[in-house]
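Reverse transcriptase domain-containing protein structure dump, as promised
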Amino acid sequence: MSLQGHHTKTKTPFKVRGTFETELTFRDNTAQAIFYVVYGDSDNLLSCDTSESLGIVKLTYAVTADDISSSYADLFNGLGKLKDVKCKLHIDDTVKPVVQPHRRIPFHVRKQTEKELQRLLDLDIIKRVGGEPTPWVSPILVFKKPKSQNQIRICVDMRVPNKAIQRERHLTPIIDEIIANVNGARHFAKLDLNAGYLQIELAEESRYVTIFSTHVGLFRYKRLNFGVNSAAEVFQQMIQTTLSGLDGVLNISDDILVYGRPPEELNDRLEQCLKRLKDNHLTLNKDKCEFRKERMDFFGHVLSAGGVSPDPKKVQAILNASDPSNARRCAVSLD
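structure tokens r here:
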């Protein structure tokens, strides 16, 4: 008789003859397991963990999106602001400020632009400028949001101000580090910070460099805006610091990955992560969050109990890429 990780309520221990390790296969699933050979005549028993790894059983006590929404409703409402943290831009005073020419906004999107500006004002993301010097003024570009007919996105052209903004150098985790960290994990969750950069308050002394012109006047940002050359590194460092000390939690920009081996471990780590986010006044985009997954797409890779593999969609995009048609495209060839 052999028992694999068997737990019994009897107080009499089994007499073990020996152990052996082997690979088990059930349909398309495989798992490594240690078997204990005991005296007696009975059926073989599999542990719960091995049965779950092989896909024989599925546990249903996991945290669900509805559970999280009810317990942490504040996390999915509005735009958060990282507690007790302000981003200071390091501006080189030797660089001469530039007031760039205003770019005319097409008439057919002006109403939509005004509506978006009002939304940003209501969220306390931007502020009207008046009665003060404006050494830096940048133009804006207006784009329609993907999958939306009526919403537009306002982008400030920060290329000229960026010449005066000195970057901070913070490391972003690479995929090799992620693979090492998630080794052995079987269950995953992914959290998406709502409008990432805009949850970081910009220091008062740094806001003047973000002033931009529109057909209804000048505005400046009160939050860290897209286009600032140091925004990605600063944001990564701030969120990483906020989540420091949490086991099984890492982030790349505004995507937060939570992972664990048994479901209970994932649930506990997810609970701790959500509590940390709530305590620091950050909010999430519920539509982009995923909970209790056995396979997770994360930055071009698929994470699962079987390891890490390239995302098939990304691979297919490369395979479908057209052949080079000019000298510039021939610089990189895909065989």
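Helices lie at 48-53, 65-71, 110-122, 175-182, 231-242, 263-279, 312-319, 327-330.
lmk if u need the other ones
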